[in-house]
């Protein structure tokens, strides 16, 4: 159970559009799936801007930068994205967008021509380059367009 003061803080954060829920994993510090925006706003007709409004985010709450080279993100149908040489700084979030674009320090692109995250249900799985499981995040709802992992 959340204590009243914590709940009030969470409620205030939610009202401001920023939701940061404490969890054991984050308290310990980890690299983990943070959010999946799986139903791109508007009609899903495959435009690159629409594809790029579909994304999964990965967050690093450890005390050090982590190089994600070779790490993979897969959906339930085994569509795979493999990170190139990408350093995720401590406390930072990287957004993995579905469409085409130029990678930066905050955004990387799967360069796909169609959506990868199903609008009804799917599972994202994050693994290290050697295949070690890191995190999974599942959703099963069309009532909202995104999932906080
Ligand atoms: Ca849509
Ligand atoms: Ca999928």
UniProtKB/TrEMBL annotation:
Q: Which PROSITE patterns match?
A: LTD (PS51841)
Pfam families the record matches: LTD (PF00932)
Residues forming the LTD domain are 22-141
- Keyword annotations for this protein? Signal
Instruction: Return the InterPro entries for the record.
Output: Lamin_tail_dom (IPR001322), Lamin_tail_dom_sf (IPR036415)
Which stretch is the leader sequence? 1-27
Classification via SUPFAM superfamilies: Lamin A/C globular tail domain
Q: What is this protein called?
A: LTD domain-containing protein
